[in-house]
Write a structure and sequence with these properties.
Strand order of the largest sheet: 15-14-12-8-7-19-20
Helix content: 10-25%
Radius of gyration: 20 Å
Shape: globular
């Protein structure tokens, strides 16, 4: 398989170019991508991350202090560099170690990132946070099943996160970009007693599950088993009954959902830490499509109007971290305005049809 040919200006999330763009790959992933300097960059430095070496250590010791850095390391779990290690560099990382990614999946997400409209993504994030800030109470609804959950983000502590738009010096971001979220504490930590206390009601899970593991390869077989056990959610929905950010029960909406509901219920019973809805996520990348597999980068999937997703657990505190795509759900403000999701997609579709009729262009 020949390398994918791209140039540095294909990746708009880095903003204005600097002298050096650094590509970091794993020992067996260096042949996936051929990267040439684009407008404004003088050179591309290609480094290999040796086994046993932390990404932050390599960056601090070998990468120029103002460089833009892209890490694509299939099969390697990468811990985030510390702020001291990263310095003023900008870093984007393809999450290619916590779930199994084939070479073709890696190439797909590289192509997808090159096509992503970063300016539009930044505008979407700004609109999202403006609407959220103006509404204390948010509602997640699923029109197909009739479920509804309320989230009052003024109750208790919560942290809003943005993995989208243009990086600033010292920032690090997932790749492809395109996810917003709210967590019960800092996103890189896990506090078992932390809760999204303002979250109550019923949430519908219907979409691709994602099962992340940490660095131990021995967890791979159980990771795959758990993913397959939850895969009926692609076609069959379950309802999560939530009180103060904690899952109190799981109900299958159809008989086809019963195996997935039973697996979820067992998971919650065996390790009650999974009862905590650790993250409400919102995918806004409208360029990517869902890969029909256990694929971490699926979390940025935004359909055409954004997509809700849920996160349970966080590695290595829990053995696995689970995410569930809910593309049929919508996030609404207190006055019913669609912030994101299925209702936003319908609204956008109507707007696009009016625009096409009036000016003849998309």
């Amino acid at each position: 398989m020949s390398p994918l040919d791209l140039t540095t200006h294909d990746f708009g999330q880095f903003g204005e170019p600097v002298e050096t763009f650094c590509l970091i790959t794993s020992e067996d992933g260096g042949e996936l991508l051929s990267l040439l300097p684009g407008d404004g960059y003088s050179r591309v430095v290609h480094l290999t991350l040796p086994r046993g070496t932390r990404l932050g250590t390599l960056i601090a010791e070998s990468v120029p202090p103002d460089a833009h850095v892209l890490a694509v390391c299939p099969g390697r779990f990468l811990d985030s560099p510390t702020p001291q290690e990263l310095g003023a560099r900008k870093l984007a990382v393809l999450p290619a170690g916590s779930t199994p990614l084939t070479d073709e999946y890696v190439r797909y997400f590289l192509r997808s990132a090159a096509k992503t409209d970063i300016a539009q993504q930044a505008a979407t994030a700004e609109e999202f946070f403006d609407l959220v800030a103006a509404s204390d109470r948010l509602t997640i609804v699923d029109d197909a099943s009739g479920t509804e959950a309320e989230f009052d983000h003024t109750v208790g502590d919560c942290v809003w996160n943005q993995q989208a738009g243009v990086l600033e010096p010292g920032d690090q971001q997932i790749f492809p970009s395109g996810k917003l979220s709210v967590t019960a504490a800092e996103i890189t930590t896990f506090e078992p007693e932390a809760r999204l206390l303002g979250l109550h009601g019923d949430l519908t899970l219907r979409g691709w599950p994602i099962v992340h593991r940490h660095a131990d390869p021995a967890d791979g077989a159980e990771q795959q088993r758990l993913f397959e056990a939850l895969s009926p959610l692609v076609s069959h929905a379950v309802t999560l009954h939530v009180t103060a950010g904690s899952i109190e029960g799981v109900t299958p909406q159809t008989s086809g959902a019963a195996p997935a509901a039973a697996e979820l219920d067992k998971l919650l019973t065996d390790d009650p830490r999974y009862r905590v809805i650790w993250e409400l996520g919102f995918g806004i990348n409208t360029t990517t499509e869902v890969i029909p597999a256990n694929c971490g980068p699926n979390e940025v999937y935004g359909a055409t109007g954004g997509a809700v997703n849920l996160g349970l657990g966080i590695t290595p505190a829990t053995r696995f971290a689970l995410a569930f795509l809910c593309p049929r759900s919508s996030l609404l403000t207190s006055d019913g305005t669609a912030v994101l999701g299925a209702r936003k997609a319908v609204r956008r579709g109507r707007m696009q049809r009016v625009s096409s009729a009036s000016c003849g262009c998309h």
